[in-house]
Amino acid sequence: MMARFLYNLALLSLLPYVWLHLFLRSRKQPEYLEHLGERFGRYAVAPRQPLIWLHAVSVGETRAAAPIVAALRARYPDCRILLSHMTPTGRRTSEELFGDEVTRVYLPYDYPFAVRRFLTRYRPAVGVIMETEIWPNLVAACQAEGIPLLLANARLSEKSARRYARFPNLTRGALRGLAGIAAQTEEDAERLRVLGAPSVEVLGNVKFDMLPPPEQIVLGEALRGRMGSRPVLLAASTREGEEALLFEALASQPPDDTLLVVVPRHPQRFDEVAAMAAKAGLAVQRRSEESPVEARTQILIGDSMGEMFAYYAACDVAFIGGSLLDYGSQNLIEACVMGKPVLIGRSTYNFSHAAEQALACGAARQIGSAVELLEAAQGLLHDNVGRRDMGEAGREFAARHRGATARTLMLIESRLADRPDV
To answer: pTM for the whole thing?
Structure first.
């Protein structure tokens, strides 16, 4: 109790800075100033159906939630899915993936009054937090209201575990207040146990269950048609600082007629990355121009949301962003599902288990710099057999690890079994 009391004092002291934070973020993403009341538990009228609540903080978690949303809607057709987020890009991704099929809101900041308002308004039958977002007041409020709260598809890197370990009593109390924890790997489970989680099941990674929508394949074929017959290297979900390294390497050693497609992780950086490529002296086009890619174009900026499967369908080789610099990597599983050879940097702590296994089975190769990336890509782009073998290894790797969604659904069902309103 003392740990949470001190935590709440710290939250209160930070309250003025919350508004400053939102204002500063809105300078790049004006959407941060929308739905402000929801950040503090002020919502419109809730749906009348029983609610199953999933929390997906941003883009990656929202995409990972897609198989679970589909499974829940099929299993509980009379329930409404409430999907909460923390970022505008997560909310926008939800709109693109689910449209009006779900109710979407921002989860309030972890102030006691705000989380109580949220739970009072919606009264979900169960809550499911995707991956790892541990909010002490939210957990305590769910306990007080008798709402089972689960942590699903949980992953915890060594870096994140060290951060939570700085507040052992607070973290232990929150973990013990959860109604269940489903970890992706045994390594994730063990880190959670060390932090105080009393019971953790290893159910796998639901991202392996994400299959490309048919319309994304069709769109990918159309995109490839605009690119022509040139070799295509995709730099997927790149993070700040990585594009500059890629453009510098490309400008110093232009590779044949290869087209580099760069899809920044965050949409607010689209303009910045396009300008950066032009400043480096490279010929640039943008996906949003909806025009054929000219023969002289070296860089195509993928300035669109919700089309990652289409970009994978259109490319020959995929580099996974967030791994060239110390961001821990973005998701390499989608590229494997699409049967594309994967190149990945040294920083993989967010997907360490998947990266290790993809490297071990030959679905991926590791590079240490932007120059190495271009050299490895060029080798693969001129090696049809090597690309085919890596792509097949990726498909087999992804297929072997499917099934986490069904196991997670069983966990959710077990917590809903004694809920008369579902």
So the answer is: 0.91
